[in-house]
Amino acid sequence: MTDVHSGVNGVPLPDPLHAVVLELERHAAAGGWDQPPTLYALVDTAELLAAEPGLADQVGISATEIEPGSITPVEQESLGDAPLDETLARIAWPESVLGCALVQEVLVLPPDAEDERPDDADPVDWAAAHADRREVRMVAGVLRDGTSACALRMRPADADEQTEVVYGADLAPNLVVALRATLD
Protein backbone atom coordinates (compact mmCIF):
# COMPACT_ATOMS: atom_id res chain seq x y z
CA MET A 1 0.00 0.00 0.00
CA THR A 2 1.28 3.47 -0.85
CA ASP A 3 1.28 5.92 1.99
CA VAL A 4 2.18 9.56 2.28
CA HIS A 5 5.45 8.89 4.11
CA SER A 6 6.96 6.14 1.92
CA GLY A 7 5.82 7.83 -1.29
CA VAL A 8 7.40 6.99 -4.62
CA ASN A 9 11.05 5.95 -4.77
CA GLY A 10 11.47 7.27 -1.23
CA VAL A 11 10.06 10.71 -2.08
CA PRO A 12 7.17 11.55 0.25
CA LEU A 13 3.83 12.33 -1.35
CA PRO A 14 2.16 15.67 -0.64
CA ASP A 15 -1.10 14.24 0.74
CA PRO A 16 -3.24 11.11 1.16
CA LEU A 17 -5.05 11.73 -2.14
CA HIS A 18 -1.81 11.37 -4.12
CA ALA A 19 -1.13 8.11 -2.25
CA VAL A 20 -4.57 6.75 -3.17
CA VAL A 21 -4.22 7.77 -6.82
CA LEU A 22 -0.87 5.98 -7.08
CA GLU A 23 -2.31 2.95 -5.29
CA LEU A 24 -5.16 2.84 -7.82
CA GLU A 25 -2.71 3.10 -10.71
CA ARG A 26 -0.69 0.18 -9.34
CA HIS A 27 -3.88 -1.82 -8.87
CA ALA A 28 -4.92 -1.09 -12.46
CA ALA A 29 -1.43 -1.97 -13.73
CA ALA A 30 -1.65 -5.36 -12.02
CA GLY A 31 -4.83 -6.04 -14.01
CA GLY A 32 -3.16 -5.25 -17.34
CA TRP A 33 -4.30 -3.07 -20.19
CA ASP A 34 -7.55 -2.89 -22.14
CA GLN A 35 -9.72 -2.44 -19.05
CA PRO A 36 -12.96 -0.45 -18.90
CA PRO A 37 -13.09 2.81 -16.93
CA THR A 38 -13.45 2.24 -13.19
CA LEU A 39 -14.94 4.71 -10.72
CA TYR A 40 -14.12 4.80 -7.00
CA ALA A 41 -15.72 6.55 -4.05
CA LEU A 42 -13.07 7.91 -1.69
CA VAL A 43 -14.01 7.54 1.96
CA ASP A 44 -12.42 8.22 5.32
CA THR A 45 -10.71 4.97 6.35
CA ALA A 46 -11.45 5.35 10.07
CA GLU A 47 -15.14 6.02 9.37
CA LEU A 48 -15.32 3.04 7.02
CA LEU A 49 -13.82 0.68 9.60
CA ALA A 50 -16.12 2.06 12.30
CA ALA A 51 -19.13 1.36 10.07
CA GLU A 52 -17.78 -2.05 8.95
CA PRO A 53 -15.79 -3.50 11.90
CA GLY A 54 -15.32 -6.88 10.20
CA LEU A 55 -13.48 -5.20 7.35
CA ALA A 56 -10.46 -4.43 9.54
CA ASP A 57 -10.05 -8.14 10.29
CA GLN A 58 -10.37 -9.01 6.59
CA VAL A 59 -7.56 -6.68 5.57
CA GLY A 60 -5.46 -7.32 8.65
CA ILE A 61 -5.33 -3.86 10.21
CA SER A 62 -6.65 -2.35 13.39
CA ALA A 63 -8.19 1.06 13.94
CA THR A 64 -5.09 2.11 15.92
CA GLU A 65 -2.85 1.51 12.88
CA ILE A 66 -4.72 3.97 10.69
CA GLU A 67 -3.09 7.33 10.10
CA PRO A 68 -5.41 10.31 10.58
CA GLY A 69 -6.78 11.47 7.25
CA SER A 70 -6.29 8.11 5.54
CA ILE A 71 -8.49 7.58 2.49
CA THR A 72 -9.83 4.28 1.19
CA PRO A 73 -11.03 3.82 -2.41
CA VAL A 74 -14.26 1.84 -2.79
CA GLU A 75 -14.79 0.46 -6.30
CA GLN A 76 -18.20 1.21 -7.80
CA GLU A 77 -20.31 -0.80 -10.21
CA SER A 78 -19.44 -0.79 -13.92
CA LEU A 79 -19.99 2.54 -15.65
CA GLY A 80 -21.64 0.86 -18.63
CA ASP A 81 -21.35 1.79 -22.28
CA ALA A 82 -22.70 5.35 -22.24
CA PRO A 83 -20.23 8.16 -22.99
CA LEU A 84 -18.16 8.89 -19.89
CA ASP A 85 -19.06 12.59 -19.77
CA GLU A 86 -22.79 11.74 -19.75
CA THR A 87 -22.30 9.08 -17.08
CA LEU A 88 -20.34 11.40 -14.79
CA ALA A 89 -22.93 14.16 -15.26
CA ARG A 90 -25.56 11.86 -13.69
CA ILE A 91 -23.52 11.01 -10.58
CA ALA A 92 -24.01 12.74 -7.24
CA TRP A 93 -22.17 11.46 -4.18
CA PRO A 94 -23.57 11.53 -0.64
CA GLU A 95 -21.85 13.81 1.88
CA SER A 96 -20.17 10.79 3.52
CA VAL A 97 -17.99 10.42 0.41
CA LEU A 98 -14.87 12.61 0.65
CA GLY A 99 -14.14 12.46 -3.06
CA CYS A 100 -13.89 10.19 -6.06
CA ALA A 101 -11.36 8.80 -8.50
CA LEU A 102 -11.52 7.40 -12.00
CA VAL A 103 -9.15 5.06 -13.80
CA GLN A 104 -9.41 5.06 -17.59
CA GLU A 105 -7.35 4.33 -20.67
CA VAL A 106 -7.23 6.94 -23.41
CA LEU A 107 -5.44 7.62 -26.68
CA VAL A 108 -3.17 10.65 -26.85
CA LEU A 109 -1.76 12.25 -29.96
CA PRO A 110 1.05 14.74 -30.52
CA PRO A 111 -0.09 18.38 -30.18
CA ASP A 112 0.09 19.07 -33.92
CA ALA A 113 -1.93 15.98 -34.90
CA GLU A 114 -5.28 17.80 -34.67
CA ASP A 115 -4.26 19.99 -37.61
CA GLU A 116 -3.98 16.83 -39.76
CA ARG A 117 -7.50 15.51 -39.07
CA PRO A 118 -9.86 15.74 -42.05
CA ASP A 119 -13.09 17.61 -41.27
CA ASP A 120 -15.25 14.62 -42.16
CA ALA A 121 -13.27 12.05 -40.10
CA ASP A 122 -14.72 10.60 -36.90
CA PRO A 123 -12.33 11.87 -34.19
CA VAL A 124 -12.23 8.57 -32.27
CA ASP A 125 -11.67 6.38 -35.32
CA TRP A 126 -9.12 8.81 -36.72
CA ALA A 127 -7.16 8.92 -33.44
CA ALA A 128 -7.22 5.12 -33.13
CA ALA A 129 -5.69 4.79 -36.60
CA HIS A 130 -3.11 7.58 -36.21
CA ALA A 131 0.48 6.34 -36.53
CA ASP A 132 1.72 8.50 -33.62
CA ARG A 133 -1.02 7.59 -31.14
CA ARG A 134 -0.06 6.43 -27.65
CA GLU A 135 -2.23 4.71 -25.12
CA VAL A 136 -2.21 6.12 -21.62
CA ARG A 137 -3.72 4.90 -18.36
CA MET A 138 -4.98 7.95 -16.54
CA VAL A 139 -6.02 8.06 -12.89
CA ALA A 140 -7.58 11.23 -11.52
CA GLY A 141 -8.87 11.82 -8.01
CA VAL A 142 -10.57 14.78 -6.39
CA LEU A 143 -11.72 15.67 -2.89
CA ARG A 144 -14.53 17.96 -1.77
CA ASP A 145 -11.97 20.48 -0.51
CA GLY A 146 -10.77 21.00 -4.10
CA THR A 147 -7.62 18.90 -3.85
CA SER A 148 -6.81 16.90 -6.98
CA ALA A 149 -4.20 14.33 -7.95
CA CYS A 150 -3.47 12.53 -11.21
CA ALA A 151 -1.21 9.74 -12.40
CA LEU A 152 -0.39 8.77 -15.98
CA ARG A 153 1.33 5.71 -17.38
CA MET A 154 2.11 5.22 -21.08
CA ARG A 155 1.38 1.79 -22.48
CA PRO A 156 4.72 0.17 -23.28
CA ALA A 157 5.55 -0.67 -26.90
CA ASP A 158 6.31 -4.26 -25.89
CA ALA A 159 5.42 -6.42 -22.89
CA ASP A 160 8.96 -6.39 -21.46
CA GLU A 161 9.29 -2.61 -21.45
CA GLN A 162 8.90 -0.87 -18.09
CA THR A 163 7.13 2.47 -18.01
CA GLU A 164 7.26 5.20 -15.45
CA VAL A 165 4.28 6.77 -13.72
CA VAL A 166 4.05 10.54 -13.93
CA TYR A 167 1.99 12.20 -11.23
CA GLY A 168 0.78 15.67 -10.37
CA ALA A 169 -2.32 17.66 -9.48
CA ASP A 170 -3.55 18.68 -12.91
CA LEU A 171 -2.35 16.22 -15.54
CA ALA A 172 -5.94 15.59 -16.67
CA PRO A 173 -7.67 18.97 -16.15
CA ASN A 174 -10.92 18.16 -18.00
CA LEU A 175 -11.36 14.91 -16.08
CA VAL A 176 -10.64 16.68 -12.79
CA VAL A 177 -13.38 19.23 -13.58
CA ALA A 178 -15.85 16.46 -14.47
CA LEU A 179 -15.09 14.53 -11.27
CA ARG A 180 -15.41 17.68 -9.14
CA ALA A 181 -18.87 18.26 -10.61
CA THR A 182 -20.01 14.90 -9.19
CA LEU A 183 -19.30 16.24 -5.70
CA ASP A 184 -21.45 19.40 -6.01
What's this, in brief?
By secondary structure, the chain is an alpha+beta fold. The chain contains six helices and six strands; from the N terminus they run H-E-H-H-E-H-E-H-E-E-E-H. It has a six-stranded antiparallel beta sheet with strand order 2-1-3-4-5-6.
How many independent structural domains?
1
List segments where confidence is low: pLDDT < 50 over at least 5 consecutive residues: 1-9
Oligomer: single chain
Strand content: 15-25%
Order of helices and strands: HEHHEHEHEEEH
Question: How big is the Rg?
Answer: 18 Å
Question: What structural class do you assign from the helix and strand content?
Answer: alpha+beta
- By DSSP (H or I, 4+ residues per run), the number of helices equals 6
Largest sheet: 6 strands, antiparallel
What fraction, in percent, of the residue positions are helical?
25-40%
Distance between the termini: 30 Å
Strand order of the largest sheet: 2-1-3-4-5-6
Q: Tell me the overall shape.
A: globular
E-strand count:
6
Averaged pLDDT: 85
Features:
184 residues, alpha+beta, 6 helices, globular
What does this structure look like?
By secondary structure, this protein is α+β, with helices and mostly antiparallel strands. It is built from six helices and six strands, in the order H-E-H-H-E-H-E-H-E-E-E-H. It has a six-stranded antiparallel beta sheet with strand order 2-1-3-4-5-6. Strand 4 and strand 5 form a beta hairpin. The N terminus is likely disordered.
